[in-house]
Amino acid sequence: MSRIEAARAILAANDRGGYTVPTNRLYPFQWNWDSAFVAMGWATFDFDRAWREIERLLEGQWEDGLVPQIVFHAPSEDYFPGPAVWGIARTPPTSGIPQPPVLATAARFVLERHGEDGIARARAIYPKLIANHLWWQHARDPDDTGLVATLHPWETGMDNSPAWDAALERVPTETQTEIRRRDTGHVDAAFRPRGVEYQRFIHLVDLFRGTGWDAVRMLQLSPFKVADVGTNAILLRAERDLLALAERFGTAEERDTIASRIARKETVIAGLWDEPLGHYLTRDLIGGGLIPVRTSAGFLPLFAGLHDHAAALAERIDAWRRRGIGLVPSTDPDAASFEPQRYWRGPVWAVVNWMIARGLREAGLDATADSVASETRRLIGDAGFSEYFNPIDSAGIGGGTFSWTAAIDLLLGEEAQR
Fold it and tell me: Rounded CA gap, 322 and 324, in Å?
């Protein structure tokens, strides 16, 4: 079986009827940002299935525009917390928090690949994308600062990043819900978040469930509140892509509103640059300052179109490559908090690399972009379609036969042929 065939086979094996699970058993439902990347992977060989991925994710969209982190299309006992813990009476059941909003970027990508034949599908989902971006503005940036708030580490997709350590200390460890983790039954506990982190994660779920998932109360009450640089950068990129869709399907008012949000976000995200650390950082919205932890999320403003510091960021990546460090580690390998095999505290993630490489290329830094892209393909080629990779010994770790890793390999494989 060729590499392309192997990647396609993983998507097919993880297909559950129009939506793709990240991997069998460990993640048995549809995850928001996973599916956006997976839709782009499907678009390399099956346009109908790519659109269906997006449409099925949007089956979980709330009336207020939220596209939740998880859509529980079918029951499974392999994952905690399941629908009962979230306590949301919807069909299909969902979680009550978002994930990084890649969806408009995915929709534009699929449409541009599909061409005129995709217009009807894109036109049908466009109002839902508009509603989702309005949700981010109203629910997470009601004061129009230009930075959206994150209220739970799971919302960032980078659950146990060292960037959250200090802010999570404010979150109590007591929970109303009994914690029955399933993840450590599928993969080594050394690869996953620690128990105390899960206690704080579930405390926040309990707190938010107690508000009835009221967005205003959640923003008021959460003891964890940050302006995540990764989420905000991804949202800025998505706003640009939404504007491109609005040029085809939207009104002049919608285009003006989106353009206004873009201009404001460009300014405030630029302000997340920290000169002493030479990196874009997350802002602690309770403590008020920038969180002095360099993570892979700090490269994502490149993906958002902010290129003022592109050369400095590229040099850091080039320096890691010269030292033999696998690109791009999720935490600075020189930091005391770096753990090369524990989830988002060090490992390399193919989806983040794809965004970083794209941003570098758009900034005109093709050599570094090529390094990130080729290193990602090398890791996958050597260790398989793993959830993530150890940047020190290149081992594949976490879940196996991972959908978004396969999708990224398809995308990078295509790009390498151009």
Answer: 5
pLDDT beneath 70: ranges in the chain: 181, 186-187
In terms of phi and psi (left: phi > 0; alpha: psi -120 to 50; beta: otherwise), the region of 69 is alpha
Cα end-to-end span (Å), the chain = 23
Of the candidates 301, 252, 245, the residue with the CA atom closest to the CA atom of residue 273: 301
Residue 207 to residue 202: CA distance in whole angstroms? 8
Beta bridge partners of 279: 274
Peptide bond into 148 cis (omega under 30): no
| Dihedral sign, Cα of residue 90, residue 95, residue 97, residue 98 | negative
Strand pairing partners for 133? none
**Active-site residue, from 53, 239, 254, 387:** 387
Q: Tokens standing for 382? A: 């050597």
29 in Cβ contact with 83 (< 8 Å): no
Catalytic residue among 53, 141, 155, 159: 159
Question: Residue 280 carries which DSSP code?
Answer: E
Q: Give the global pTM.
A: 0.98
For residue 117, indicate whether it is catalytic.
no
Judge whether 159 counts as a catalytic residue: yes
Closest by CA position to 280, among listed 240, 319, 231 = 231
pLDDT tens, 167-215? Answer: 999 999 999 999 986 777 766 778 788 999 999 999 999 999 999 999 9
Pairing between strand 396-397 and 273-274? unpaired
CA atoms within 13 A of residue 303's CA, in its CB half-sphere: 27
* Cα Rg of the chain (Å, integer): 20
The β-bridge partners of 397 are: 388
* Pairwise CA distance, residues 86 & 271, whole Å: 35
User: What residue segments make up the domains of the chain, in order of their start?
Assistant: 1-140, 323-418
What tokens were used for 179? 């914690």
